[in-house]
Specification:
- The chain is an alpha/beta fold.
- The chain folds into two domains: about 70 residues, 434 Repressor (Amino-terminal Domain) (Orthogonal Bundle); about 190 residues, Endonuclease, Chain A, CATH 3.30.870.
- It has a six-stranded mixed β-sheet, with helices on both faces.
- The longest helix has 17 residues.
- The protein is elongated, with a radius of gyration of 21 Å.
């Protein structure tokens, strides 16, 4: 996009889009540039522009600043919580920071030993996981979780500035029949497709690796061009974001050792393709 080119905002797309469109309208009606509106706050013009385009959430302190400058009687502070809830629809509150962070990450490294990571799941696989872990919830609640999970995959669309995403998968994931054989084949094909398009890097940790440096827990490690790195860990009903530099460094070292123990990317891809064919042909291991 050329510098200075105006991008029209469709406020009907979502709550964040409506919020961003109203923010731009009020700012322009007041005759202010982005730079003038953020003057005196702790945020830059680029950050405010991304809020207007529904790419970032509005922090409460910035919302109060905007209301004060624009004289909007607390409107943007009152509504920013609605936007936050809309953004995390289908996700737990503890995952909200990660939803925001992964859109701006430079690199994402993930180890998810018991299920395929949410960023890589097909609709059928996501539904099976949600139903298994939340068996008593309504169909509407399940649908919201599945749609929220699938929406994260926009990171891998061709027109998105994709972070470098690297995932290590345990071989057991390639063999565990969470779905019927055709569904499992499609889940594995989805990963193969992303690898072939050079959207992700994938390694498989084989059964034969035995003990390894990351035997306890899962992790997502993210780095950014304009912020310190983060680690996110998750268990069944809780998730934790870690930004302590020493702990982040410990997780990074463990991940590097895990990656060294895994198969090379080409051998890993061949194993995933072979597992997909086994499911397609009814030859999967039992």
């Amino acid at each position: 996009m050329a510098r200075g080119q105006r991008v029209e905002i469709d406020g009907s797309e979502s709550v964040p889009s409506f919020y961003g469109k109203e923010l731009r309208f009020q700012r322009e009606r007041a005759g202010l540039t982005l730079e003038q509106l953020v003057e005196g706050s702790f945020y830059g013009a680029t950050y405010l522009s991304e809020i207007e385009r529904a790419q970032r959430r509005m922090p409460p302190d910035l919302a109060r600043h905007v209301d004060r400058v624009l004289g909007t009687d607390g409107y943007f502070e009152r509504c920013c919580e609605d936007v936050r809830r809309a953004r995390r629809r289908g996700h737990a509150a503890y995952f909200e920071r990660i939803l925001e962070a992964e859109k701006h990450a430079l690199t994402i490294e993930e180890w998810c030993p018991t299920v395929f990571p949410g960023l890589l799941q097909t609709e059928a696989y996501a539904r099976a996981v949600v139903r298994a872990t939340h068996p008593l919830e309504t169909e509407e609640e399940t649908r919201g979780k599945v749609e929220g999970r699938l929406s994260r995959a926009c990171l891998f669309e061709d027109d998105h500035k994709t972070p470098q995403y690297w995932v290590v998968l345990h071989e057991s994931l390639l063999r565990q029949p969470v779905l019927r054989p055709q569904g499992m084949a499609e889940q594995l094909d989805c990963i193969v497709h992303l690898v072939r398009r050079r959207r992700v890097f994938t390694q498989v940790l084989p059964w034969s690796a035995g003990g390894h440096p990351f035997m306890v827990g899962s992790a997502m490690i993210m780095t950014f061009t304009d912020a310190p790195p983060l680690v996110y860990t998750e268990s069944l009903h809780t998730g934790h974001t870690i930004d302590d530099p020493a702990l982040v460094a410990d997780y990074q070292r463990s991940y590097d050792l895990l990656r060294a123990a895994a198969l090379p990317p080409e051998a890993s891809l061949a194993m995933i393709e072979s597992a997909a064919e086994d499911f397609r042909n009814g030859k999967q291991e039992r």
